[in-house]
Amino acid sequence: MTKKLHNVPFELRTIGQQIESLARLTGAPQSFVCQVRNLFSGKGIALDSDASPYVAALEEAFTREESIRSSTGRAQRNLSQVRGNFKKIGEQFASGHAANRRPGRRVRRTREVIVDGNHRSFVMPRQLDHMPMVPGPEEQQ
Question: Where are the domains of the chain?
Answer without folding.
Answer: 2-100
